[in-house]
Amino acid sequence: MYTPNQLQEVIENAVQNIKYPTHPEMLYEPISYIMSLGGKRIRPVLTLMAADLFEGDINTAMPAALAIETFHNFTLIHDDIMDNAPLRRGKQTVHEKWGVNNAILSGDVMMVEANKHLSMLDSQVLKDALNTFNATAQGVCEGQQLDMEFEEQDVVSITDYINMIRLKTAVLLGGAMKLGAQVAGASPAEAEQLYAFGENLGIAFQLQDDILDVYGDPEKFGKQIGGDIIANKKTLMLLKLKELANANDLLELEQQSINKDHVDKIKSTTALYDNYSIRELASIEMRNYSDKAFSALSSLQIKEERKAELFKLADLLMNREY
């Protein structure tokens, strides 16, 4: 079995060896740029780990892994435009560097590039792989749309929020693993079980991100602590607070939503979270989904030693500080 670190290195080399056309330069240079910004490459790593789990050749599964990574970076380009984000992984975002119109078009071509990677898969698995990839990609777009709509809605239920992060974040982890399993010749039931592992892990991962945004160590988290509070982002924690808070505290929360003093806003909102034990309640919800993920992996009828690296990676992700 390969370790995640070994697969990260393999994927990094494969990404660096992708040859994009050189003309028009303004179309393809942004693609090379964002693909070279690195990151943990966790999604393509999961694709290769899934293939390896079923004793598949990681080189045979590499086109699927590159399709997933290319699609993921395509969504980052468009997400950054919608969020008007200036930085991505500490570097200028594509739309800041090349302009919005170029960024949109380069993102569009990345979707084509992802499909070109998929087309290199063996014809025996191509149809199933395309179905999985398309369902995954569509789900991510649906999740992004819901996220935008939530910004304009006064009332969002916790159930709706969980479904949104399932689509926006978790289906890509599930889809990445299902693709790897399919390429390696897993049965439909096995591939679906691995999808359940990835999807539940993805939901737990995002819920943990919500918690770290408020309570993480700023030296380790890598992002501004309290960013979600400043942006009035409807996270599980905020929705749970609104569900439990009394009238006076709800009024305080409403007043804080328009507070321009970010330091005071974070401090006051965090105090409300503390008063209602929101961190603990969110952690219980997070563990609920991580338990579902571990259960799906545990019940997969494969030798335990072959699942060991996946268990280690999942455990690492669920106990991270950043």
Descriptive notes:
The model has no long low-confidence stretch (mean pLDDT 95). The protein has a two-stranded antiparallel sheet. The longest helix is centred in the middle third of the chain and has 30 residues, at 123-152. α4 packs antiparallel against α6 (100-118). It has 16 helices and two strands. β1 (87-88) and β2 form a beta hairpin. It is an all-alpha fold and 322 residues long. It starts with a helix and ends with a helix. The chain folds into two domains: 1-186, Farnesyl Diphosphate Synthase (Orthogonal Bundle); 187-322, Farnesyl Diphosphate Synthase.
- Strand content bin: under 5%
CATH architectural label of the largest domain: Orthogonal Bundle
Residue-averaged pLDDT, rounded? Answer: 95
Helix vs. strand class = mainly alpha
Q: What is the CATH superfamily of the largest domain?
A: Farnesyl Diphosphate Synthase
Q: What's the helix count?
A: 16
The percent of residues in helical segments reads over 70%
**CATH domain class name of the largest domain:** Mainly Alpha
**Unreliable spans:** none
- Output the radius of gyration: 20 Å
The name CATH uses for the topology of the largest domain is Farnesyl Diphosphate Synthase
Described by the principal axes of the CA atoms, the overall outline is globular
Strand order in space, largest sheet: 1-2
- What is the chain-wise order of helices and strands? HHHHEEHHHHHHHHHHHH
Count of all domains = 2
Oligomer: single chain
By DSSP, the count of extended strands is 2
